[in-house]
Amino acid sequence: MIIEGKKMLTNSNELLSPLTLAQLLLARGDLVAIPTETVYGLAANALNAQAVAKIFEVKKRPTFDPLIVHTYSVEQLARYAHSIPDEAYKLAEVLMPGALTLLLPKQAHIPDIVTAGLPTVGLRIPKHPLALELLHGLDFPLAAPSANPFGYISPTTAEHVRAQLGDAIAMVLDGGACSIGVESTIVGFPNGEPTILRFGGISLEEIESILGMVVKTFTHSVSNPSAPGMLASHYAPKKPFYVTTSGNLEAFSKGFLQKYAPEKIGVLAFKAGLAHIPAENQLILSPTADLNEAAQQLFGAMRRLDNLPVRIILAEFVPQNGLGRAINDRLQRASV
Ligand code: AMP
Ligand code: MG
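ok -> structure tokens follow
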């Protein structure tokens, strides 16, 4: 079978299912954007250092920022990691497949470019059926960060990926809108203690209830970029983005109205908009105050506001529980 460039790929769609095509492209070292339940990933063969290098090029991602490696079953974890703590298996058995990444001591055959030279590898099993089927059909794992230019809002639909990276990558495998909408929760074991290093699609409460203990969190290492998705400014729209405490949006906006006309202000509200800003400039994350729905809507809403003819975007934090921690983390970083 010959696959030569984009045109042939499009023409051969009739012959190959998108899934098979994605598998062929990945096997020959190309990049494919893949759906997951968290956000879309930009995937390459994790055992092929040259293929992985393309991810950093296309995303303009600094090489000190390590990538998460995706596989399809808990049994596979020991192929890529060693000395796996009991607590890691406890979490894996309940939460994998799912929005959990475990940082574990890496096996030597994982290329250094994947882990940015760190001795640990981030491992995840995505829950999206198409991603799992894709991974089952490959004899290598996939390194995949979010499929967006470094530092910008993460993509939660195939269209988001096409709009920004469509010309630079071999294929976007369309699996619909992401059901969770924020990245995975990252758990590491510094000094042997389970520690949350990035809030994400699995809540702190759920992790604590599985482990039966209070779990440490260490998610604001602003000066240490080797830690997960942790640069202070990240997930950021292009427009100036200001965030205020939960429920304070109305008072907060009054200050900005002295400088900006109402139609130049975009609003990202949790459950209700503001009376004095045009309705078409306002996006509401969840009218029923459901934090899961709010997480699912978050990045798409940020993108839509970024593309409106407004000058600034105002947002409010959400309650700090469940997925609210992950939402607030992304809002905070978008505002730096
Ligand atoms: P992304 O997939 O773009 O959300 O990025 C994944 C995040 O996981 C990155 O910001 C990495 O810093 C983090 N990560 C992946 N592997 C490791 C590792 N071995 N040690 C520490 N952080 C990691
Ligand atoms: Mg990312």
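The chain is about 30% helix and 15% strand.
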